[in-house]
């Protein structure tokens, strides 16, 4: 009971210190609010209201069908453009796409002469240009096929492909990037807050005060873990309910309490890394550099940005040993697909096991560092 009391009161001291650090407090608020919204709304991977112009040199029924097939929300209503204005208008950024339908296009299609349609794409709009070009090709091909099939009386295909997209039917990028932003912020802030707590004690000279008190290194380290973990846990809950659900309108399919249980387990690993680099770094700039060396590869290769299947086999196998990979996996399973504990318990077990080893290593490192400092 004496140890628990020491951990509790040291943690409350850590919380008071955190709330007096207005820069760090503002950073936490920003990371779980404005940063999530900016990441979800600015980084789009779907075509939305792309500007498009049409040069109709055929003026046929088929050309009018192709023009009218480009509809919102993917494309703006196509506007007529003169051929001589294609390059000037695209140089000014007025249009992302310009379709040029050549003369006698309908006649050549019906005659089986395989005419070509020119699609001009503004390649500076990388995402919309790449995806929109594929959409335009599919739309044009579909309209030509339907027109020729009815004109020649050809029978329709007896097999139709009916595509059903689960969990995100409209492929809305914000549904993915918003939740992944919270997951990335958990790793980022757990490492920074835990590491900064150690460095701040050393820079302010209060670590010496703690070492002369009847406290153990374990009690000092655990107080910083539970205090900073509590801050992150509350921030995650508020961000899920008010930012992701309310402001972004992202549906949460699974149990938020179950996800928060996973977050608490993962925090032991992330805070353990923060404690470890906090004992290595001698100043806040050194902590920042060490943080980048650890967090960036761990975040980029965890599966939150690209799936493990897209990585080389040896790298994907190596990342299976990282708790961040399993954290992303069970977070997606719970929040996107509504998985229960019976599905994600193996990942909880791996995160808890590997995270416990990292946390133990951080405690041993912290104990040896404080013992050297006491001498």
Overview of this structure, please?
The chain is mainly alpha-helical. The protein has two domains: 2-43 and 171-374, no CATH class; 52-152, abc type-2 transporter like fold. Helix content is 67%, strand content 4%. The chain contains 15 helices and four strands. A four-stranded mixed beta sheet has the order 2-1-3-4, with helices on one face. It is elongated.
Question: Helix and strand string, N-terminal first?
Answer: HHHEHEHEHEHHHHHHHHH
Q: Please tell me how large the radius of gyration is.
A: 28 Å
Order of strands, main sheet, comes to 2-1-3-4
Q: For the terminal residues, how far apart are their CA atoms?
A: 28 Å
Q: In terms of structural class, how would the helical and strand content be classed?
A: mainly alpha
Query: What is the count of structural domains?
Result: 2
- Report helical residue fraction: 55-70%
Strand content: under 5%
Number of strands: 4
Largest sheet: 4 strands, mixed
Low-confidence runs: none
What shape does the CA trace take? Answer: elongated
Mean of residue pLDDT values: 85
H/I helix tally: 15
